[in-house]
């Protein structure tokens, strides 16, 4: 596979009836994809019962200027591990640039920066991630489980989580109401 075929900086949108309830109407920001595998952060669903303030308090970080934003379900892998998908105006220890569209940070320095008002302008916090081994995502893309959509950062920063799946399809020119579960047979 050529580098141009990898999907870093794009979105994976779950197709109706994909078969895995953990990914029902999932919107995954692909932050890494190469011959070794893929990693993405789910941005289509929030975790009930925990906000950003509670997360900071659990880590003994003073809330400071941080808004009490929802925490997203990043994916089923390492659900106790936190990640922040954020705008490109901030970088810290181990921050990864994602195709110049957004950045991904997974260390407490970004949480402290958000709390003290020196963090990125735009950000979304998530627990867990979606991960695929070598060739696994590429194989899944040949079935009717996932749709790839352009990586427009506005889908993250300007769209509420509950609307991202629908708007992701609409941004690709597809009316999601017309999608059906399963594939047809000729």
From TrEMBL:
One of its GO terms (cellular component) is cytosol. Pfam families: DUF179. InterPro entries: AlgH-like. SUPFAM superfamilies: VC0467-like. Belongs to the UPF0301 (AlgH) family. This is UPF0301 protein GGQ96_000031. The lineage of its organism: Bacteria, Pseudomonadati, Pseudomonadota, Alphaproteobacteria, Sphingomonadales.
């Amino acid at each position: 596979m050529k580098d141009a075929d990898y999907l870093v900086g794009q979105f994976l949108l779950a197709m109706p009836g994909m078969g895995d309830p953990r990914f029902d109407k999932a919107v995954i920001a692909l932050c890494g994809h190469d011959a070794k595998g893929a990693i993405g952060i789910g941005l289509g669903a929030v975790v009930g019962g925990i906000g950003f303030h509670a997360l900071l308090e659990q880590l003994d970080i003073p809330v400071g200027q941080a808004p009490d934003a929802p925490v997203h379900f990043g994916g089923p892998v390492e659900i106790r591990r936190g990640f922040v998908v954020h705008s490109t105006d901030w970088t810290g220890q181990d921050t990864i640039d994602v195709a110049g569209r957004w950045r991904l940070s997974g260390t407490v320095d970004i949480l402290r920066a958000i709390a003290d008002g020196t963090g990125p302008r735009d950000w979304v916090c998530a627990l867990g991630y979606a991960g695929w081994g070598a060739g696994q995502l590429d194989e899944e893309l040949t079935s009717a489980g996932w749709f790839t959509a352009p990586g427009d950062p506005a889908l993250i920063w300007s769209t509420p989580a509950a609307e991202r799946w629908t708007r992701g399809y609409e941004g690709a020119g597809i009316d999601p109401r017309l999608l059906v579960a399963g594939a047809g047979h000729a």
